[in-house]
Design brief:
Largest sheet: 6 strands, antiparallel, barrel
Mean pLDDT: 83
Structural class: mainly beta
Number of helices: 2
Number of strands: 6
Shape: elongated
Distance between the termini: 61 Å
Helix content: 10-25%
Length: 118
Amino acid sequence: MGGRHEKPFFIGQRSLRILQARGPRQKLVGIEVLEPGRLPKECHLIIHQGEIAGRVTSVTHSQTLNKSIGLAMVSPELAELGRDLRIRMDSGELQAARVAAAPFYDPKNLRQKEGAGA
């Protein structure tokens, strides 16, 4: 019996089709904080053109990478790798960040080479 089988009817079918047609409202992306020493908090907001466009979901300072990194939920138009972001801090100031590739790691293995005296 080739072909795709679809359930003829189920509760919520109409709502599911509407959500699928609309697409995601937000995407989870990696972020890199660009200002050393200033660590945003989880739940700080991403601001784009004066409007809320997402929020920080986790953040930490990576000793291995020597920078602050984290994850954020952002609107799809801001999810492009390398895209500049602004995070509103407790003070109201906007902190510079950038969409980064996740998972975070040392792609050129530079840390390992430094430890070996290379």
